[in-house]
Write a structure and sequence with these properties.
Elements (H helix, E strand, L loop, with lengths): L5 H28 L9 H26 L14 E8 L2 E5 L2 E3 L3 E8 L10 E6 L5 E7 L5 E6 L4 E7 L11 E7 L2
Parallel strand pairs: 1-4, 3-9
Antiparallel strand pairs: 1-2, 4-7, 5-6, 5-8, 8-9
Helix pairs in contact: 1-2
Length: about 180
Amino acid sequence: MVPVSDTAIVITVAYAIAVLIGSVISFAVYASTRGRSDDATDSADHARRETAWLVVVVLALFALLLATIFYVPYGESGGSNKQIVRVIGVQYAWAVEPADVVIDRPVEFWLESRETNGQPAVNHGVGIYDPDGTLLTQAQVIPERVQKLVFTFTKPGTYRILCLEYCGAKHHEMVSAFEVRER
């Protein structure tokens, strides 16, 4: 069985709750308007109900946002036990330093795109693939910015980094590798 992160569990539960709340609200709106004819409906009363339901929905969505915003993985830090790996993309090459990490410790990749040989820095997409060729994680890398990507490897082996954003004629040659080893 594939391990599921705590973040995925929290977000799944939050959205399940949101669907449940939305269903209850939809049923309540339906029930509150059932059995009334258009002639008997007071427009001021109808406007108050619409406003009340709008407030309820906005508050529910805001509560969902507050419940999940702290679990969004972007900007996440690897913690005090992290390993830092710098990955610098230039036209058609990756520089990876250091080229090895250990399993079961978070790796915080610092991703950059730099100019080289007079060529301007361009956007790159970093894709990290396991030894079997499965894409594990990815991030967009934009010039003049350090993008952080955190991932914890659980199996040793040779992992590859490929560019996922077309960056020019030799984009397909933009491949590098690093080792994940036992402690």
